[in-house]
Design a protein that fits this description.
Tetrahydropterin Synthase, Chain A; about 280 residues; EC 4.1.2.50; seven-stranded mixed beta sheet; 4 helices; single chain
């Protein structure tokens, strides 16, 4: 017997890429379970599928930075902390954070297939005996519009958004007087392709870093939150500093305000997404 659940959940996370650095991503998860009927004449109760499997995904990869095990970077894990230092395409990225901010995925790169293998290894052993196999499909949101990949961290968040490098694949809509402006949408999606969005008040001097080093052309960030102490350094070319927190509400407002500066006679509306099917709208 086969049980399927489409769009079980969305994984919002970032991963390290040999060419692109930290890449924010959002994948929709489709799940298929193969097995025998249990005493309830079910393979598995849909409520348990949604609760139990989503919980496993949330605890293993969602809102984390995924690092491929074969990536050539300096990596250390001890005393409940993980630290890495990485050079890519002439850029630099380093981070130190509590262990739960990172997950290691077997292989040379992070893609749908490596993450599917990782998730299957996490999920299947926790399924009841009548579930004999599972299939997982990961897919981005279908769209013909423009989007960008961003990473960030939210120190004021009570949950996992406080992890300093996690991210999303996000659509962007820009409107002048109610009319869609695809040229500007494309312009901002290209400007923010694989961007790290940093908060100005989290900037520190290089000498204040405790665990990682910074190159001359880096920004350095650090903050303390409920999950612990986070810090990072990143090449300035891969980062945009916002004068506010990087919640999707603030991102939408920042974009509307910046665009309004160049088009003062237009009513500007920005529809900013945080991953799939959620976001914020701001006007200027």
């Amino acid at each position: 017997m086969i049980l399927f659940v489409d769009a079980l959940t969305v994984i919002d996370f970032s991963y390290l890429c040999a060419k692109r650095g930290a890449v924010g991503e959002s994948w929709i998860v489709d799940m298929t379970l193969h097995g025998q009927l249990n005493e309830e004449s079910m393979v598995l109760d849909f409520a348990k599928v949604k609760k139990q499997i989503k919980s496993i995904i949330d605890n293993t990869i969602d809102h984390k930075l995924a690092i491929p095990s074969e990536l050539n970077c300096q990596f250390a894990q001890n005393d409940g902390r993980v630290t890495f230092d990485y050079e890519f395409n002439g850029h630099h990225l380093a981070m130190s954070a509590p262990d739960e901010a990172v997950c290691m995925v077997e292989g040379s790169k992070i893609d749908e297939q490596s993450v599917i293998a990782f998730l299957k290894a996490q999920i299947l052993p926790q399924m009841p005996d009548n579930v004999k196999d599972i299939e997982i499909a990961l897919r981005p949101e279908e769209t013909s519009s423009f989007y960008y990949h961003y990473s960030h961290g939210l120190k004021k968040h009570d949950g996992n958004c406080q992890r300093i490098i996690h991210g999303h694949r996000s659509l962007i809509g820009i409107f002048f007087d109610g009319v869609s402006m695809p040229r500007l949408q494309k312009e901002w999606s290209q400007k923010w392709e694989d961007i790290y969005l940093g908060t100005q008040e989290d900037l520190i001097e290089h000498a204040q870093l405790k665990y990682v080093t910074a190159n001359e052309g880096d920004y350095a960030f650090a903050y303390e939150s409920t999950q612990g102490y986070f810090e990072m350094s990143i090449s300035q070319q891969r980062c945009e500093i916002l004068p506010c927190d990087t919640t999707v509400e603030c991102i939408a407002d920042y974009l509307a305000t910046e665009i309004k500066k160049s088009y003062p006679n237009k009513q500007v509306k920005v529809r900013a997404y945080e991953g799939v099917g959620k976001g914020a709208i701001a006007y200027a």
